[in-house]
Amino acid sequence: MSMLVHWFVLTGTEKEVPQVRREIVDKVRAWGVPLDEGTTDAIRLVASELIANAVVHGKGPITVGLRYRPGRLAIDVLDGDPSVPRTGRVRADDESGRGLALVGLLAACCAWKPVGSGKRVWAEIELPMVVPVTRAAVPCGLSAKWAEQQVVTKPKAPALAVA
């Protein structure tokens, strides 16, 4: 299977984050990827954190890309601010500053690089592999009708002739 790709372009407002998070999961499902609850939650959280960081710390517009290949989903976020993404030192009572650390825990890999006058931040999430299901050799359609009409006769026991 080749790679599947989809792009979203955002203006860079906080109200867009929940909607795009839902659209990302919907798009992955539309590609036929089976998602369990844990994987769905990981995709939502990683997407939310990457997009929210671009909205809060970057400059709009923001481009979000999805790249799917069997077993992996990459979420790319591009914004117009070249600042290095940083994981902060947080105290127990801080309400923010843990996003990139969470992304690092949930993603198989994550990184960033400068792009033009901004940056690209991405994370790859491992996905369940689809195991092909083989069909049993069961008659169907006309073959099933034909099989129903067949009369199976048992061979007769040999008769003994007594003279």
From TrEMBL:
- Which InterPro entries does the entry mention? Anti-sigma-factor_SerPK, HATPase_C_sf, HATPase_dom
Q: Which UniProt keywords apply?
A: Kinase, Serine/threonine-protein kinase, Transferase
Domain Histidine kinase/HSP90-like ATPase: residue ranges: 15-123
A Pfam family that this protein carries is HATPase_c_2
Show the coiled coil region(s).
none
Q: Which SUPFAM superfamilies match?
A: ATPase domain of HSP90 chaperone/DNA topoisomerase II/histidine kinase
The portions of this protein that span the membrane are: none
Q: Which PANTHER family match?
A: ANTI-SIGMA-F FACTOR RSBW, ANTI-SIGMA-F FACTOR RSBW-RELATED
Q: What is this protein called?
A: Histidine kinase/HSP90-like ATPase domain-containing protein
Q: Which organism is it from?
A: Streptomyces thermoalcalitolerans
